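---------- Forwarded message ----------

FYI, see the Glutamine amidotransferase, class I record below. Original note from H. follows.
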Amino acid sequence: MTQPIIGIAGNQLLTAEAAFHGNQVTYTPQGFVDAVQQVGGLPFVLPIGAPETAAAYIQRVDKLILAGGQDVSPQFYHEEPRPKIGETNAQRDRFELALIAAAINQQKPIFAVCRGMQLLNVALGGSLYQDLSEYSGWQVKHEQAPTQPKFATHNITISEDALFASIFAQTCRVNSYHHQAIKDLGTNLAVAAHSDDGIVEAIQDPARRLLGVQWHPELSFPFDEKEQALFAYAVNEL
């Protein structure tokens, strides 16, 4: 059986080690690599590059994973940055927006995590709360640090028609590391899960095989069977 080739959109990090003389490192969290390999996929890290190269990258993979990281720059949903926004990287945003467009155009599935879910929403015309303090109904702690990510800390409720509804109980707990959230949904996206305070915790578009989750299954899959099953679904069935 041919292994599905999973493109994981990479990030850049300026190393702190003096020996690297300020060189940048292209990386993705190891959890994505381990999880994809564990469920039978072949992971490829896609380095940030020129948007016009995105289509060629997507041609060479079967599915795309969008990982977490910096805040999405509000310029891409037509807002100015507000005081509580965190670090942004417009170069990364532009490249990943091009990857999303290419994947949809080539009918390749997308599995998006945390920032990745937020960017997928923005790519399809949606918007974000730049900080949860902008959301009047905020009651749940969505940034669980210093609690370790292997521990699930807050409840989510899964929609009956969620693509992963057969994997998760209707109500379950997930880990949580975000201070931004979806405000307005993008075109043809549906809410697949939400937290007790109404924050969108998963989105989907079954027709285009798009799935996004707000939590971090790549950090908890070694300890949580449902997160292992989620990766198996994303890699082999989505």
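H. also flagged this: The helical segments are 30-38, 54-59, 90-105, 115-123, 217-220, 225-236.
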